[in-house]
Specification:
Layout: H1 3-6, H2 15-19, H3 24-39, H4 49-56, H5 60-66, H6 70-88, H7 98-115, H8 117-125, H9 132-152, H10 162-184, H11 190-210
Length: about 210
């Protein structure tokens, strides 16, 4: 499948859709949505402003009216991807057992990675970017995941502390490595992956907690 197969050019859309004048906010949202749709299947370097402009039926020059540069466009896409992942993996409401909450959230995390391997990989690659703003998106996402995990600590009889925080950040790195390997070579079943990252969290937090004092 080529990049051209991934989007529907504006000339192939209904005439009424092409004629409707969009507000600046609507147009920017359209361009971002097209970019996100491509980014779910293609690596960042293939999600070009030219391809998105063609799909939207606008000039490449107009893209720069909404995004200052190619880097700015990719940064906007990455922020959307991070926000989507955090929204879909947010701890569910209505549950009181911290173990059930953690399991539900981690299950949603595994489901997200399984359904969006390219977007997930792009988010992790952001940590290696030469652009500090792109690196910041990845780090902010990790920080939010850590914050959610640490929120469960008191309910599990563990007081949040610098040692626990370090253990949780180390666990996040472990999870990212497990998920990256699973994407590349899915030799483990989904339930095995979920069990691995869940039990490892409890083990790491328990060990770190026992070393306190």
């Amino acid at each position: 499948m080529t990049i051209d197969d991934e989007v529907t050019p504006a000339r192939e859309r209904p005439a009424a859709e092409r004629r409707r004048r969009m507000s600046p906010a609507e147009r920017r949202r359209q361009l971002l949505d097209l970019g996100l749709d491509l980014a779910r299947r293609l690596p960042p370097e293939d999600v070009t402003m030219e391809v998105v402009a063609e799909a939207a039926g606008v000039s490449r020059g107009l893209m720069f009216h909404y995004f200052e540069s190619k880097q700015d466009f990719h940064l906007a896409i990455l922020r959307e991807q991070a926000g989507e992942m955090l929204a879909l993996t947010r701890p569910p409401e209505g549950l009181e057992d911290p173990n059930e909450i953690a399991l539900a959230s981690l299950s949603a995390y595994v489901e997200y990675v399984e359904a969006n391997p390219t977007a997930y990989s792009s988010l992790l690659r952001g940590a290696l970017s030469g652009d500090p703003e792109i690196r910041a998106v990845t780090e902010e996402t990790r920080t939010e995941v850590a914050r959610r995990v640490l929120a469960f600590a008191p309910a599990m009889g563990i007081d949040a502390s610098p040692m626990i925080e370090a253990a949780v950040m180390g666990w996040i790195a472990f999870v990212e490595e497990v998920m990256t390997r699973w994407i590349a070579d899915p030799v483990m079943r989904r339930d095995q992956v979920l069990a691995l990252i869940t039990t490892s969290l409890l083990a790491i937090a328990g060990v770190a907690g026992s070393l306190e004092g």
